[in-house]
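[Meeting: bench + compute handoff]

Bench side (C.D.) handed over the final construct sequence. Compute side (W.E.) agreed to return the predicted structure before the next meeting so the bench team could plan truncations. Sequence as handed over:
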Amino acid sequence: MADIHADIEALREFAGALTRYRHGQREVADRGDYQLAATRASLEEKASQWRSLLARRQADLAACQRAAAMDAEGGGHVGCHAEAAAVREAEERLESIRRWQQRVEDGASAFQGPSSRFRNVLDVDLPRTEQHLQAIIDGLEAARGVRARRS
């Protein structure tokens, strides 16, 4: 009779381990989703900052070019090389951010299918398995007329 108690207790511990695993893995999946959202938000914030900076730099370049045109009429010459370089830098940074955003989206797309299937295992299959295991434990206890110590 002691063997059945030990077997039932082992099954109960296994059921508890499945539950802990499910909760732990759900936290891992949630952290992955959070990190992906945080990365997207960070890149979008950087893109927004560089779009604003690009607009300011383009306005500075346009103002410089107007001033250069007026100076040229008066015989002077104002160079706008620094403003043009600043515009190019902002465009390059913005393009770099867009490439990173695309890489993140490509990675997210590749991750989405397996992640969805894994969440389905965590949210549907494992709870069903835990319920089935509990029904087996209850059946064993009823069949033997015993009650194992509950944890």
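W.E. noted at the follow-up: The chain has a mean pLDDT of 90. C.D. will use this when planning the next construct.
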